[in-house]
Amino acid sequence: MVMSAAGDAPITRRRVAILISGRGSNMTALIAGARAPGYPAEIALVLASRADAGGLALAEAAGIPVATVASSAFKGDRAGFEQAMQAVLDAHAIELVALAGFMRILTPGFVAAWQGRMLNIHPSLLPAFPGLDTHARAIAGGAKLHGCTVHLVSPGVDEGPILAQVAVPVLAGDTEASLAARVLEQEHRIYPAALAWVAAGRRTPPEAEGALANPLPRDDWLPKSR
Ligand code: GRF
Asked: Are residues 137 and 185 both part of a single domain?
């Protein structure tokens, strides 16, 4: 519990775990965003699926508790991997999960347990280009607009209700790297805004200038209070 910026009304901050597998630039943006006064969530844990995820050191340097559940230790046993992750999430009393470059596909059971409380960021304007290599596919397909999406996680990969999107132009001469960099800049703006929106249980768009946002589609996608 913290006091609001005005100092009068207490704010309950939702305890968020960020799940990563790699470099963690979105994780870093979420950690920075959550430090804003009155932000309705705190980053209570960074959980990695691999011990060599670059984001782990960044999270530690930022003073965030970290844990690793190595998916490599659970080959062919996705349920076991997820049970181990769930135990860590429970131990840290996590209420919301933000996937940020988390490269494991989750089972319908795990997704159902977190329905309405688990977000993902994807580097395309979904439903275009789900899956991998989105920037190369956008260029190869001749797309003039590309972008990023924050959505609630449902059992289908890169499906689930879209919360917010930002479009970026595909420029003549763009390479996969140049387009990825332009999109990533927007990912870092939109994800903290969308997380705040879900954490606060709001039905209005996140306050990210330039973000396109959909209202939450159904009450059962709202975060459940504990
Ligand atoms: C981002 O492009 C994100 O949209 C996708 O994976 C990438 C992760 O990058 N899901 P980072 O680890 O956040 O830097």
From this structure: yes
Domain range for 17 is 1-114
Asked whether residue 2 falls in the same domain as residue 80, the answer is yes
With a 6 Å cutoff on the Cβ, whether 147 touches ligand 1 is no
Asked if residue 98 and residue 126 are part of one domain, the reply reads no
Give yes or no for residue 123 CB within 6 A of ligand 1: yes
Q: Report pLDDT digits (tens) over 81-130.
A: 999 999 999 999 999 999 999 999 999 999 999 999 999 999 999 999 99
The model's pTM: 0.91
Does the Cβ of 158 fall within 6 Å of ligand 1?
no
Contacts of residue 2, defined as CB under 8 A and 6 or more positions apart, other chains included, come to: 10, 11, 13
| Residue 1 confidence (pLDDT) | 46
Cα separation of 220 and 217, whole Å? 9
Q: Is 122 a catalytic residue?
A: yes
Domain end point (choices 47, 79, 114)? 114
Among 114, 142, 167, identify where a domain stops. Answer: 114
CB 169 within 8 A of CB 105: no
pLDDT over 70 percentage in the chain: 85
Nearest atom within ligand 1 for CA of residue 20: 12
Nearest CA residue ID for atom 14, ligand 1:
25
| 134 Cβ below 6 A of ligand 1 | no
Write phi, then psi, for 142 (nearest 5 degrees): 75, 20
